[in-house]
């Protein structure tokens, strides 16, 4: 079995990446033989959907498939055949990162039939979504982030399966706060959160991985 973690952060060792790696460890704890791989979206030169509509052409050769022939195409093909996926994105300006959006356009749109009768036959693997952000739990509600996450997840549920999710708040943003102008943050408070709450978030990510593996095993 093959599982992917999709890293929507440009950073490869920070919050999102660490959580995703933990979730892959969770998968391996249930399915030691499974192949797991993290895909760093910012390593791949690719764009979102280019609106060619080849995936929706009547009797089209590429109906229900993304025809966009770029470096991302073989990777997308592997992902759509996988047995489970864990997506991870920081919040940038109240939304997912640009590359995560590009990924979702390419991943989801071909499978969305513009029809009441036609459907697209494709794999409906178990999914999870991990979101990391600067704001607190309370502020993320007030700012409407949860409505936005629900919106993405409702499309994922319709096309694949209902995603489990993890919200990670008040992340530690730099390895050394002294090197950046960041006096709106209380570094000490953030460090304490990082030392006390982030390990719990990592455990939650591990469990998310275990759940994905168990769901994949059942199918
Ligand atoms: C360009 C940019 C925009 C951001 N916008 C937001 C935002 O709107 N809301 C928020 O809570 N955090 C925001 N953040 C903070 C990140 O979401 C947060 O630090 C996240 O944990 C970073 O993930 P990473 O450590 O995996 O890279 C922003 C960070 C950057 C670099």
From TrEMBL:
Entry keywords, A to Z: Flavoprotein, FMN
Family: Belongs to the SsuE family. Isf subfamily.
Matching InterPro entries: Flavoprotein-like_sf (IPR029039), FMN_Rdtase-like_dom (IPR005025), ISF_SsuE-like (IPR051796)
The species this protein was found in: Methanobrevibacter millerae
Descriptive protein name: Flavodoxin family protein
Family annotation (PANTHER family): IRON-SULFUR FLAVOPROTEIN (PTHR43278:SF2), NAD(P)H-DEPENDENT FMN-CONTAINING OXIDOREDUCTASE YWQN-RELATED (PTHR43278)
One example GO MF annotation: oxidoreductase activity
Residue ranges annotated for the NADPH-dependent FMN reductase-like domain, each copy included: 1-114
Required cofactor names: FMN; [4Fe-4S] cluster
Any Pfam family hit: FMN_red
Superkingdom, taxonomy of origin: Archaea
């Amino acid at each position: 079995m093959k599982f992917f973690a999709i890293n929507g952060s440009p950073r490869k060792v920070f919050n999102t990446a660490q959580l995703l790696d933990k979730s892959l460890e969770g998968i391996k704890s249930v399915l030691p033989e499974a192949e797991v791989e993290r895909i760093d979206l910012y390593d791949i030169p690719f764009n979102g959907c280019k609106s060619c509509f080849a995936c929706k052409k009547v009797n089209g050769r590429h109906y229900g498939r993304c025809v966009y022939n770029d470096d991302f195409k073989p990777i997308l093909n592997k992902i759509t055949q996988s047995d489970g996926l864990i997506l991870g994105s920081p919040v940038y300006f109240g939304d997912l990162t640009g590359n995560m959006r590009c990924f979702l356009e390419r991943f989801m749109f071909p499978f969305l039939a513009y029809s009441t009768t036609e459907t697209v036959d494709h794999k409906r693997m178990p999914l999870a979504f991990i979101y990391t952000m600067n704001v607190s739990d309370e502020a993320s509600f007030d700012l409407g982030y949860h409505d936005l996450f629900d919106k993405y997840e409702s499309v994922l549920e319709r096309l694949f399966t209902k995603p489990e999710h993890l919200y990670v708040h008040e992340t530690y943003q730099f390895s050394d706060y002294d090197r950046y102008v960041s006096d709106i943050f209380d570094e000490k408070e953030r460090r304490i959160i990082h030392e006390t709450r982030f390990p719990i978030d990592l455990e939650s990510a591990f469990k998310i991985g275990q759940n994905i593996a168990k769901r994949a095993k059942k199918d």
